[in-house]
Amino acid sequence: MRQHLSPVWTIARRELTTRARSKAFRIASAVLLAGIVLGILVPAWAMSGTARFTVVVAGGPAGLPAAVSAEGAAAGLAVTARPAGDRAAAVRQVETGAADAALVAAPAPGELVWRTTEEARLAPVLTAALDRLAAARHAEELGLTPAELDGLLAPADPRVTRLDPQPDRSAQLVIATVGMILLFVALNFYGSYVLTGVVEEKSSRVVEVLLARVRPADLLAGKVLGIGILGIGQFAVLAAVAAVTLQVARPPRLPGGTVSLIAAVVLWFVLGYGFYSVLYGALGALASRAEDAQVAAAPLTGFLMLAYFGAFTAVADPARWWITAASMFPPTAPIYMPLRSALTDVPAWQTGAAVLLMIVAIGVLVRVGGRLYRGAVLHTGGRLRIRQAWRGAV
């Protein structure tokens, strides 16, 4: 057993070191790291500060500017409100950019002045201030006290009854969606590594030298294993950088189930890579040129894209029968099962069955793909058909 694994590990180590030292891999890793850091920090920094606005108030009671600032604070905004002599003075400040908006209290029902268009966050604050001013005016006409007015304006606080309560899965959905996108990119990215690696060795005749020392099955297994270790290692580094960056950004506390969901994404990446990398390796052996390899792999890439875009329909109704079937069908399970787990409670037996089916499918593909690889890897010239490669392995 140890003697059989030795060539596999040798090939795997060769693939790992060769790919890791390549310029393309280093550039791609640097771009991914920069994208993750900026993708986390920029939105966090943009949302961390409180939005600040300046408003000028013309007319109304003396306490109106303070009331506008209080309304802004209640909405999570920092609104600086200051009085203006009259409407003309307030409009001039808006025109010159000294103020973001002007609130003209009189004549009723009041007026809001903007330089170009309404500011979506500030407009409700100013409208609420005018509503409060109008209510106070009517209350005074009716002889109501400020306390009675507050009672009339107090918002309703009804009891909420949920007949079929469901947990809030928004955070899990975001994680699963990001994981699904990463899975799709990773399966194509590392699968193409296997594909191009096989073609490069065939075109340069390196494979003939390698096959003088190792069996075709060991060569394919080592290539898949080496690139897989490289991919998992790269993802681990990216995940660690993302975790550290999230701590710097001080995100909200993650909900329960997040760790298990991330673990599921990692598990399905490993299983999905094992499934598709063998297919990509076998398809790469059918071609002698990079152009032929891309043509041979086009149906597989197209299938992955269909599965990827189809998975977004699971968000609307994850209980559909075909989504359940897709989450257990080996070719689509790596994309559908993590997303479905984030949207609904998946029975344990379905998860276990999906993993078991995936392992069995990988085992079958290793044998079938290994035979195709063995029958096609030494072929040169035009593109080889699957039937020819199958017969050539006999």
Shape: elongated
The figure for the number of domains is 2
The sequence of SSEs as H and E is: HHEHEHEEHHHHHHHHHHH
Helix content: 55-70%
- How many helices? The count is 15
Question: How many strand elements?
Answer: 4
Radius of gyration: 32 Å
**Taking all residues together, what is the mean pLDDT?**
80
Strand order within the widest beta sheet: 2-1-3-4
Poorly predicted ranges: none
State the distance separating the first and last CA atoms: 24 Å
Relative strand content:
5-15%
Structural class: mainly alpha
Tell me the major beta sheet: 4 strands, mixed
GO molecular function, one term: ABC-type transporter activity
Transmembrane segments: 24-46, 173-199, 220-249, 261-283, 295-316, 346-366
Protein name: ABC transporter permease
Domain ABC-2 type transporter transmembrane: 128-365
Note down, in words, how this protein is organized.
- This protein is mainly alpha-helical and 394 residues long.
- It folds into two domains: 2-43 and 170-392, no CATH class; 53-150, D-Maltodextrin-Binding Protein, domain 2 (3-Layer(aba) Sandwich), CATH 3.40.190.
- The chain has helices at 2-21, 23-48, 64-74, 87-96, 123-142, 146-153, 170-203, 206-211, 216-249, 258-285, 290-311, 321-328, 333-343, 348-376, 386-392, and strands spanning 52-58, 78-84, 101-104, 111-114.
- A four-stranded mixed beta sheet has the order 2-1-3-4, sandwiched between helices.
- Helix 9 runs antiparallel to helix 10.
- The two termini are 24 Å apart.
- The model has no long low-confidence stretch (mean pLDDT 80).
- One of its GO terms (cellular component) is membrane.
- Keywords: Membrane, Transmembrane, Transmembrane helix.
- It is a multi-pass membrane protein.
